[in-house]
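Entry:
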Amino acid sequence: HVRVRSVSTVRSHDIHLAKFFKMCEKHDRTTRSDAEVSSSIKALHALGEQQLFRFMPVIFDQLFSLLPSSPSSYDSVTENVIRYMLFAVGEIHNVQDTKGRRSPLLSNY
């Protein structure tokens, strides 16, 4: 009897992160879909620092892919993407290791 457990960097037990990835996957560039994605982006502000650090490259890649996709009549996605990215960059930039050095996460990205 062999038991397999799938582990992925994109799957998280954090409900906000899981909802964000689910909404992005379902995003079909309609106004309703944009509203759902915007809501899930806003919820990312509740993401813990550890989850943000762990998933930052995947989150940022997903956010960048959303920028050109929102219809011109509904700018909420673009606005929320930019707001969250500014927030996340600030959070990551302010974290220092035990020697007082800033995290290389942003520069490595």
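The first helix runs from residue 15 to 26.
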